[in-house]
Task: inverse folding
């Protein structure tokens, strides 16, 4: 955080300098300038997440009470204890002194101010610093060539836990983790296995005991969002789009589609989903360009959709911008964090948000390391363990019929109880 | 000294080449301006770091700011040259920058502006990775073949731009930028196909890994195993010699330079401008494609959409800083490689984020692209009147 604040101005100058040089390095300026805006909003986002985390923990504790939560005062972020079933079975647990733990994050090329998973994971480290008194460190990557040196630099720095963000880091993380079995690793949105010398044959892969995969069943809350959207649409058309066609994105879209279909089955309606057919759909092609989000949303609105669910990080802010400019035409379902709280300029457009608490999974991992010295078994965020949730409706609450709210509360309970399985 | 700058002295009797007058840039410009640009960039970068250190400014801890800046630059230097790991990483990062830098320099000297090194690198990498994971055989066969495939991939992608320019007059600045996007989309799509995608449940766009035999031999294994530097750097150096030979000793290079300096004169002299445009872009693309192949075979082993990063754009800065000469490009690539290698250490030791490296690099470009500015700051008088522009500009 300290780095990002301080260098928001610096990145701005970088952007200006490159533009001034005008040597056609167009991608540079486009990659630096979002960081500037992102940095400015960082503080807001951070506070929002903390509040959301507190609130959602309260809900989970009550196991599916009303969806309206008013930020629980206790910041017990480790509310996802249910997920961690027997991390280090067979070994004697050795607890560590929190102040001696060094948790280090390596970002992917998005950088730490990406308003996405890099930032969210970093917030987890900051939360853990506060909660357990650990020390955190951070290395950003500029290209794929940076991953390996960044990881080995952290090995040299004797980090207790190294958090890699994103599947792109998986091969390097696996290599480094195998060579350093005493260092603990966690990797967001992916797994990193020992490929056994045959990288093109995954059947003989071995699980590395010092690597914890932090994955999320994001189809679960997206299912609820889809059900809600289908219940709220007046035009009979709802839309979604992704950043890039990768599993961690499409699982949201699949859940959303399934939720809409469920609503159709229950209520005999014919609500259609634009932008995703279960196999392919609309993608911005990046996680940066707000204009892409705006254009896609306009396209969906022109086709008659009145609710859109962007799964594309900052690109989704283009959707909310369009929705605000064209008030009443289209509403937005936020993603990753409760965007009603994080994007205070465009609160009016959010119906709800699908919350994915990467920060909570990082905190949980730190807790495991402190308590047992090991990262523990793979983490899968679910509605049940509070790693995922559907945000409150906030201002739109009066718009959402009570019957629909109750249905969604019941569906959430059914998913938690395992009565409904959503396929990613 | 270098191939572009100094004319061969005292031989100007019999075969005085008119081009050498055009290319003549005084020694001060060739060496001094780039060096001063780097120095200026480091100084201005330090000022920016100080000006944005709000926490310390508020507390008036100016001594702390100064120490912080010195720490940052020290960490940059130590990270790049202070250990065998640092040196190895400097070479690893310099390799693709050198090859793409040569690609851009080659196009500049032929009067073209190749901003498409990223796309050509992607296509080269794709071709190389395909050879790497489909073929079985000893490295002595696989490695050259994969490199040739990389060159071919880049040549096709770059040559296409040349054809568009020669046939239709489409400006290469526009078409190279556009084909970067096309290459990226194409690679993203190909990485989803079963032919390229890594098998397994993940479904992420990442290619199969190349065979172990196709890994480039390590350069510094005799020091300590595990250092990533590989013979790719030697390949890049050989390419630098090749480019030097091309422009200095070959007829083709002479023609390319002539077209670059004055297309009208070249046409009047009976040179085929269209063919030369295609050849120049193909050669430039081939070098960028080779950069992609070396990256895959040397370090990455697998293809992802982000493997080229910003290298293709950094290459423009490398070429500009190197004054489009082979020797200059090698030095510039080493400097930029050092900045890349040092930035990890800088983030860790001095707590300065990698944006400083971006800023310094951007400022270098600024000072190089505006030589008058650099001269003004350092009060250097121009000699010989040449402004030393590195390329002909946009409107051609």
Result:
């Amino acid at each position: 955080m300290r780095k990002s604040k301080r260098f928001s101005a610096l990145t701005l100058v970088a952007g200006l300098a490159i533009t001034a040089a005008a040597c056609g390095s167009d991608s540079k300026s486009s990659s630096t300038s979002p960081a500037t805006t992102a940095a400015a909003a960082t503080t807001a986002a951070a506070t929002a997440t903390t509040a959301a985390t507190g609130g959602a923990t309260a809900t989970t504790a009550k196991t599916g009470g009303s969806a309206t939560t008013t930020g629980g005062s206790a910041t017990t972020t480790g509310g996802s204890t249910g997920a961690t079933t027997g991390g280090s079975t067979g070994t004697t647990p050795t607890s560590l002194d929190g102040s001696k733990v060094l948790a280090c994050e390596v970002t992917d090329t998005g950088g730490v101010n990406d308003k996405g998973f890099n930032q969210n994971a970093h917030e987890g480290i900051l939360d853990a610093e506060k909660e357990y008194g650990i020390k955190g460190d951070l290395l950003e990557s500029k290209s794929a060539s940076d991953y390996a040196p960044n990881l080995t630099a952290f090995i040299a720095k004797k980090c207790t836990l190294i958090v890699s963000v994103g599947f792109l880091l998986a091969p390097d993380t696996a290599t480094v983790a195998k060579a350093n079995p005493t260092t603990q690793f966690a990797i967001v949105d992916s797994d990193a296995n020992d490929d056994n010398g045959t990288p093109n044959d995954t059947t003989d892969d071995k699980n590395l005991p010092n690597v914890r995969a932090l994955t999320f069943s994001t189809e679960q809350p997206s299912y609820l969002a889809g059900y809600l959207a289908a219940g709220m649409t007046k035009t009979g058309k709802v839309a979604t789009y992704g950043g890039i066609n990768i599993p961690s994105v499409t699982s949201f879209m699949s859940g959303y589609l399934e939720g809409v279909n469920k609503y159709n089955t229950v209520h005999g309606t014919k609500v259609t989903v634009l932008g995703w057919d279960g196999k392919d759909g609309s993608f911005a092609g990046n996680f940066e360009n707000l204009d892409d989000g705006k254009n896609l949303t306009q396209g969906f609105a022109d086709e008659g959709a009145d609710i859109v669910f962007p799964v594309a990080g900052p690109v989704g802010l283009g959707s909310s911008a369009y929705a605000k400019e064209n008030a009443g035409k289209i509403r937005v379902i936020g993603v990753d964090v409760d965007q009603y709280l994080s994007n205070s300029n465009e609160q009016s457009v959010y119906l709800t948000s699908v919350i994915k608490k990467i920060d909570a999974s990082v905190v949980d991992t730190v807790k495991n390391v402190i308590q047992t010295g090991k990262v523990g078994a793979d983490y899968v965020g679910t509605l049940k363990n509070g790693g995922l949730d559907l945000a409150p409706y906030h201002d739109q609450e009066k718009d959402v019929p009570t019957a629909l709210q109750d249905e969604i509360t019941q569906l959430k309970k059914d998913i938690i109880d395992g009565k409904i399985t959503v396929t990613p | 000294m270098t191939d572009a700058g100094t004319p061969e002295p005292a031989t100007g009797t019999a075969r005085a080449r008119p081009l050498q007058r055009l290319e003549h840039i005084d020694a001060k410009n060739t060496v001094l301006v780039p060096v001063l640009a780097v120095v200026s960039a480091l100084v201005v970068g330090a000022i920016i770091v100080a000006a944005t250190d709000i926490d310390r400014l508020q507390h008036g801890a100016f001594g702390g700011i100064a120490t912080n800046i010195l720490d940052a630059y020290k960490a940059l230097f130590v990270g790049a040259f202070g250990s065998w790991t640092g040196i190895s990483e400097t070479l690893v990062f310099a390799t693709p920058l050198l090859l793409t830098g040569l690609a851009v320099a080659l196009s500049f000297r032929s009067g073209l502006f190749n901003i498409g090194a990223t796309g050509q690198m992607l296509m080269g990498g794709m071709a190389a990775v395909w050879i790497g994971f489909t073929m079985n055989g000893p490295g002595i066969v696989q490695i050259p073949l994969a490199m040739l495939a990389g060159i071919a991939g880049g040549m096709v992608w770059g040559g296409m731009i040349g054809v568009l320019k020669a046939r239709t007059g489409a400006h290469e600045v526009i078409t190279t930028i556009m084909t970067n996007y096309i290459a990226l989309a194409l690679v993203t799509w190909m990485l989803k196909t079963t032919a390229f995608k890594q098998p397994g449940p993940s479904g992420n766009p990442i290619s199969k890994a190349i065979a172990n035999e196709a890994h480039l031999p390590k350069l510094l294994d005799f020091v300590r195993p595990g250092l990533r530097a590989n013979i790719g750097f030697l390949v890049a150096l050989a390419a630098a010699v090749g480019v030097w030979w091309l422009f200095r000793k070959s007829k083709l290079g002479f023609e390319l330079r002539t077209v670059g300096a004055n297309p009208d004169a070249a046409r009047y002299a009976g040179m085929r401008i269209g063919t030369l445009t295609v050849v120049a872009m193909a050669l430039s693309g081939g070098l960028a494609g080779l950069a992609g192949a070396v990256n895959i075979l040397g370090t990455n082993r697998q293809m992802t959409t982000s493997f080229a990063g910003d290298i293709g754009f950094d290459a423009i800065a490398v070429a500009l800083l190197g004054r489009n000469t082979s020797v200059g490009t090698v030095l510039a690539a080493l400097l930029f490689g050092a900045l890349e290698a040092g930035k990890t250490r800088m983030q860790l030791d001095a707590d300065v984020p990698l944006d400083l490296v971006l800023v310094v690099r951007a400022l270098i470009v600024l000072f190089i692209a505006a030589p008058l500015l650099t001269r003004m700051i350092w009060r250097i008088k121009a000699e010989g009147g040449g402004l030393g522009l590195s390329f002909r500009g946009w409107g051609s």
